[in-house]
């Protein structure tokens, strides 16, 4: 980044840690960019005239006489139609071999949309994944995470959502991606022929860890441009927010801040809220929907990262390995979309709510039957039937490789009801039974 005339230059650092340094300076703003010995840095703390900067590439080899140059501005991104179809790093620089983007320069990380400019989300957003669209339907303007163990195929699921979701733009914010994952996303988008509506901001495992802190704000600044200026339906995919939070922890710990729960900074809730609250439905039709991945440590849902995330977001989607069918499914018991009632049965078929509730009830009966079987109790005829139903329901509806529309999901579930149960056992209103119960 080019320096400008009359920039203040400082050459006396008074403290250096592994990720930060401090210098006495005046006229400096929060989140302002700088270089320290030529390395990009950002202001993270100001106390009187003592300014602390995080250095994205680390401080190794930097001496106390290093030259500090302040840019006089926070990180920015050039936004314009030319962003579409491109891959960028955490600073918004192209990494796909293409030219620099021409456009309007905007500061990233600004405030979320004023509540008076928001509209209650009410537009359906389909993903083609039945475990989401049938049981945990999403709406535009929603914010929701996938909770997954690190060994689960969450990047594949995010790519599926990107390829199947009905939206004008998909913006990927990848944090701590392996090179294989980065190439997987790139090739998936190119091979599907949808690269022209996808924008990606990527930090890989080979890039400095602290750079991850820029990625969500870069992705959301691009999203705000397309949603606000062009009234487009934008889906933002963020993976992996646990690695983002780890980067927050690294910076706060190296600034000698007193850690909170699980070594996370005390500001974790507000740091996450600043990102997730960018989800919005505009009155004019533009929207930003955020789907993020939060990997769990040993499946621990009480860890500070998923715990704080759950307070901010509108539900969660759990990935789970179903050993009966040897596939990853969207767990119907631990997943929840708190906004689904705004669209199911109105923007989808009228029988949707009843089919959803009945299928989950029968799936729960199967879980009870499985517990009986594992404890050596005899199974009733009904137990045997719900176990068979649950296995086929997992395979044809809950598995992440299912790619059908909502009408087909409902029709398949009705077929399963009729195959395994009597009318009275299903317990759905007569008005829907008359239309969809086609058994002779």
Q: What keywords describe this structure?
A:
3 domains, 440 residues, Rossmann fold, 12 helices, single chain, elongated, 10-stranded mixed beta sheet, 7-stranded antiparallel beta sheet, alpha/beta, Elongation Factor Tu (Ef-tu), domain 3, 32% helix
Can you tell me about this structure?
The protein is an alpha/beta fold and 440 residues long. It has three domains: 9-70, Elongation Factor Tu (Ef-tu), domain 3 (Beta Barrel), CATH 2.40.30; 76-342, Rossmann fold, CATH 3.40.50.12240; 352-436, no CATH class. Helices cover 32% and strands 23% of the residues. It contains twelve helices and 21 strands. Strands 9, 13, 14, 15, 16, 17, 18, 19, 20 and 21 form a ten-stranded mixed sheet that branches. A hairpin with a 2-residue loop joins strand 4 and strand 5. Helix 8 crosses helix 9. The longest helix is centred in the last third of the chain and has 23 residues, at 352-374.
